[in-house]
Write a structure and sequence with these properties.
The chain is an alpha+beta fold and 142 residues long. The protein has helices at residues 2-19, 38-51; strands at 28-30, 60-72, 74-90, 108-125, 132-140. Strand 4 (108-125) and strand 5 (132-140) form a beta hairpin. It is extended and about 80 Å long.
Length: 142
């Protein structure tokens, strides 16, 4: 009985120690639902903003489809981003019923059109300075 207790305690200790182990450096980590991450969107937006002349990204929608990160001397990111066109319009309302409480921004509707390009972006973020450097930026037609 005493042997089984020692084995169980050893096993529980090994599980706890493994759970507290830090992430292995150098391996790529794939992220689920990257389009919901503000960090990945900001990285993609910064990369596109440096490639496009003002007024920057007016009339397009960016969606991060795939994202991976790698912890090395800093953090490497691989992003796959869909660039699609956006159209907006105002919803036409009935004239007399909504005349006094009319708010044009409340009635603005936007929708995403076809995907124009799929871009693969590789970035490196320096942990100490928080500076992001674009390593590669390649786009192709879908």
């Amino acid at each position: 009985m005493n042997v089984y207790l020692h084995i169980a305690l050893f096993f529980c200790g090994a599980v706890v120690a493994q759970g507290r182990a830090p992430t292995i450096l150098g391996g790529w980590m794939h992220h689920e639902n990257p389009s919901r991450s503000l960090k990945f969107f900001n990285l993609a937006f910064q990369a596109f903003a440096t490639r496009v002349n003002p007024p920057y990204l007016r009339g397009i929608n960016l969606k991060v489809v795939k994202a991976s990160s790698q912890v090395v001397n800093g953090v490497n990111y691989k992003l796959e981003v869909e660039k699609a066109e956006v159209s907006c319009g105002f919803q036409q309302l009935a004239w007399p019923a909504t005349y006094y409480n009319w708010n044009p921004y409340k009635n603005l509707l936007c929708w995403t059109g076809k995907v124009l390009e799929v871009c693969t972006i590789q970035l490196h973020e320096n942990i100490r300075t928080q500076k992001v450097k674009i390593e590669s930026f390649d786009c192709r037609k879908p």
